[in-house]
Design goal:
Radius of gyration: 20 Å
Structural class: alpha+beta
Number of strands: 4
Distance between the termini: 41 Å
Order of helices and strands: HEEHHEHEH
CATH superfamily: Hypothetical protein apc22750. Chain B
Strand content: 15-25%
Shape: elongated
């Protein structure tokens, strides 16, 4: 009887983790999409070292950082998936959220400083805790750092001539539901 109670409690906790994790992830994706529409549409972003259109004034380094943690349900499902092999889609969602959040924070930093373009964008990711933490029953966490050189466009009309000022795929592009 005691064993049955433990199984029911474990199943209940996994169910709560699933529901809470999905709600939090959907809210985060919705927040990212809203912020990308608000600020991202005003920016020109490139990984080129220098923007071909030229810049006005002084350029400066801007950065954004995000640490995102997986919920226990996703970690549990991923550990089962590792037994049989294959793609770990729950972790892909985790990395996408961290990357998009770090880029948005970098753009918000540039916007706060009065810039309208960022070039030389670089992304760095780190697994926090890694396999040793997960073996002990912990959850996976990732940290992504985005940095770039912010500047003011010499010709603001150039922004309109670009096909895609902000090329960050939304959840639909990555197979996620927002």
């Amino acid at each position: 009887m005691e064993f049955l109670i433990q199984i029911v409690v474990a199943a209940l906790l996994l169910g709560v983790g699933l529901g809470a994790g999905r709600i939090a992830e959907r809210r985060h994706f919705a927040s990212l999409a809203r912020r990308e529409r608000e600020i991202g549409s005003r920016f020109v972003i490139t990984d080129l070292k220098r923007f071909p259109g030229g810049a006005l004034g002084t350029a400066t380094l801007v950065a954004g950082h995000a640490c995102i943690s997986s919920d226990y349900f996703k970690s549990f499902v991923a550990s089962l998936r590792k037994l049989i092999g294959g793609e770990l889609r729950s972790y892909e969602s985790l990395m996408q959220r961290a990357r998009r959040e770090a880029v948005m924070r970098m753009l918000e930093d540039a916007h706060r400083l009065g810039y309208d373009a960022v070039c030389n964008v670089r992304l760095n990711g780190v697994d926090i805790g890694g396999a040793s933490l997960q073996r002990k029953g912990g959850v996976v966490s990732v940290s992504v750092h985005a940095s770039g050189t912010a500047y003011r466009l010499a010709d603001p009309a150039l922004r309109d001539s670009l096909a895609s000022p902000m090329a960050i795929p939304g959840p639909a592009a990555a197979g996620q539901s927002a």
